[in-house]
Every structure is written in C-alpha cells, then in structure tokens.
Amino acid sequence: MVKQIHHEPCDYYAFGNKIEAEQRDYERLQAAGIRIPQMLAIDMDAERIVKEYIEGPTIFELVKSGTSAAPYLAQVRDMAAKAKAAGLNIDWFPTNFVVRDGLIWYVDYECNNYMEEWSFENWGIRYWSWTPEFEAYLKGHTPAITIREERITAEEYTDFLKRTDLGSQYPKERFEERIVRLVNTVSISLTARNEQGQLVGVLFGLTDYAYWLYITDPPGHRQTPDADRASAGRGREGHRGISGRQ
Prior knowledge:
about 35% helix, globular, three-stranded antiparallel beta sheet
C-alpha cells in the first residue's frame, strides 16, 4: 500500500513535518507493542511511504453491516493498555482497525501523547457499535461519490494530480512520462468519482516492480528489482485507501 503525504489546509490542527512524524510515530507504536503493518519503504524527499497491506474488513465496516465488534474489544483494550503505558493515544476510530485472521491491526501510524479524554474508553468506544454517535457520523459523512473497479488513462490521472496539487510531490523531471509509466505498470483497482463523474480518488494495487521503480529508485540510480526486493526485505501486492488510506 502506498501513502502519499499531502498538505491540505486544516483550520483546527497545526501540522509539523508530516513525513518525519509518520516515521517517528511508526517507531513509537512498534516500541509500544501495537500491532501495525510493516513499513516497507519511506521516501523522505517525495513524502511517500510503502506499507504492508493488511487484507480484511475494518471495524467500521463490520459495525455498519450490523456485525458486532464485541469479539475484538478485548484486543483493542489490550492495545489501549499498551498505548497508555507508553504515554500514547492512537486514533481509536473504527476505520483505522482491520480484522485479519481474527486479529485486529491498527493500520494508521498516527499517535499522540496520552490524554484521558481521547482514550478508547472515553472516546473511541462510542463508535465501536451502532451508537447515536456512530449513526450521526454516518448521516454526516455519506459521500456523494461512486466507487468502481476500472482503469484510468494517464491523461485523466495527470489531471487529477494537478487539480489536487498532489502532482507537485512527484519529481518535476519527465512528470507526464512518469505518470504514463505508473498507470501502465501499476494495477489500478478502484476509482472514486463525484456526481459529475470527475475523478476524486484512486486506490492502487501495488506490484513489486512498481514498488521498486517509483518508491526506491532515486534519480540517477537504478537497481534491479530483485536486488531492491532483497534489500527491502519483501514486496507484496496490495491496495488500501482513497488517495492513501492506511
């Protein structure tokens, strides 16, 4: 899974260096013993991360479908205890937790210094079942977009990058050529379109080759895919998140 850092304005939160924060939070969560996906690669200059893909439904999806999250409460409370012992809170919202083979994974890397009001018991648990808070969230966050499997053209993806300013985070050299190669190399699994049919998000399926070419290959340096895979430990196919969920 690829996560591209972006810099949208936010009225209620002041961001520092986002890519450094991702790396720091990943290390803090590992040290605390929180079950998280492995970070496979990080490109500080391009502000891009490759994570292990955790396949499975989110707790949010389970609750929304009427399935009880009760079987996973003991696990999340164990995570909460470990986080508190490390002086941390993680984002307890159920979209951030994926169930795979009976285990829950915290698929975000965000964490903050511990505050009792934002603990799981005081905040997160309100959204782990069909509560009034969960129902209110659904009513206020129903996107007017269509999700479907399709492939898009390089031209449309280039336009999307420019409209959202995400294109500024790609290397300027041979920008459009790089996008053509990306679209032709990476399996594009899902797209999100608004009511006008305009592209507003893309969910990528990442191949080993694309991982080598676009994440770990700096300008003027070219390794073989096999050599890079050996240095990185492993590559895997995966996808998660509209414009970088997880």
